[in-house]
Write a structure and sequence with these properties.
Layout lengths: L10 H14 L32 H8 L1 E6 L7 E2 L6 E2 L1 H12 L4 E6 L5 H6 L5 E6 L3 H4 L2 E3 L8 E6 L16 E5 L3 H7 L5 E5 L2 H10 L4 E5 H10 L5 E3 L16 E5 L3 H17 L1 H9 L5
Parallel strand pairs: 1-4, 1-5, 8-9, 8-10
Antiparallel strand pairs: 2-3, 5-12, 6-12, 7-10, 7-11
């Protein structure tokens, strides 16, 4: 990552200074009293709290002192360590920083299947989905997304010696293909004519069925598939080098977090914190430490 350059004292700096002065002035809304502004931890460069007063979702969490995260126990992104029980992974590291920035002392984890994450946040079982999840038009109808966090693409795995060398799912006619329930990849497979779809609860089961010959092709996140193959070298599985990912590096394809649409205060504050982490290089440092994606 290249060093971030501080803005020079020019027209842009003067405009920013003027904006800060205005932001510091009291704001009077006709016929409506301004709600309290949530507090936040000082010392984080580029981070300030929005004075959005549409709801008090963050204030409620700060008062409670606990942020409840929903995760599908999604190693290596967002999971509970089997030995220690600690919330671990790239998203866990990001969320621990977020909680400090937003002055929330406790992070509690609630687990659900991946296809149960959206229903879980909608029902109020947890405050946000703190797992690696991506934008889809259907999800956007019922939940809101945070500022983008990090990027990775999908891959295709097959049994060694299968002879399958597809560049796209459309070339798998007559084959069976599987992925995790509720993912974009499952949607793509199901919408491809002539391909038999099989849904799974976890990526390890996908790879295991490919290795045993019960499934022709598995499609899921490249970092996860590569890690599983490395963890189980005895399984005769390989990545299809010819496969061209459909996931391109545009904002809509970055991993994000999910919130209830009415919880705008919490979403805006989280998004501003994520922007600050990108600006200062904290996000890139976390990603580099895990070595599983790009900022």
């Amino acid at each position: 990552m290249s060093d971030l350059k501080k803005p020079v004292k020019g027209r842009r700096s003067l405009l920013l200074a003027g904006g800060a002065a205005i932001a510091g002035a009291p704001l009077v809304l006709a016929g409506k009293a301004r709600a309290a502004t949530p507090d936040f931890a000082p010392g984080y460069e580029g981070f300030s709290m929005s004075k959005y007063d549409g709801d008090d979702s963050l204030l409620r969490i700060q008062k409670k002192g606990e942020l409840v995260i929903g995760t599908s126990n999604d190693w290596p992104y967002s999971y509970l360590d089997a030995k220690t029980g600690a919330f671990s992974g790239i998203d866990a590291d990001i969320i621990h920083v977020l909680a400090k920035m937003l002055k929330i002392p406790k992070v509690t984890v609630a687990t659900a299947s991946f296809d149960g994450l959206v229903p879980g946040v909608l029902s109020g079982r947890f405050d946000m989905v703190g797992d690696s999840i991506h934008f889809t038009p259907d999800r956007a109808k019922v939940v809101d997304f945070s500022f983008p966090t990090y990027f990775y693409a999908e891959t295709m795995v097959v049994k060694k010696g299968s002879g399958i060398s597809a560049r796209d799912i459309s070339e798998l006619k007559g084959k069976s293909a599987g992925s995790i329930l509720g993912t974009n990849y499952s949607d793509w497979i199901q919408k491809t004519p002539g391909v038999e779809y099989r849904g799974y609860k976890d990526a390890q089961s996908v790879v295991q069925d490919v290795a045993s010959g019960r499934l022709d092709v598995g499609i899921y996140d490249l970092p996860v598939m590569a890690a599983i193959i490395k963890q189980y070298p005895q399984w005769p599985v390989e990545i299809v080098k010819a496969y061209v990912p459909r996931t391109t590096k545009v904002p809509a394809n970055f991993s994000r977090y999910i919130f209830r649409q009415q919880d705008q205060q919490l979403n805006i504050a989280t998004s501003r914190a994520l922007e600050s982490m990108q600006y200062t290089g904290q996000m890139q440092a976390i990603i580099a430490r895990h070595g599983i994606g790009e900022g």
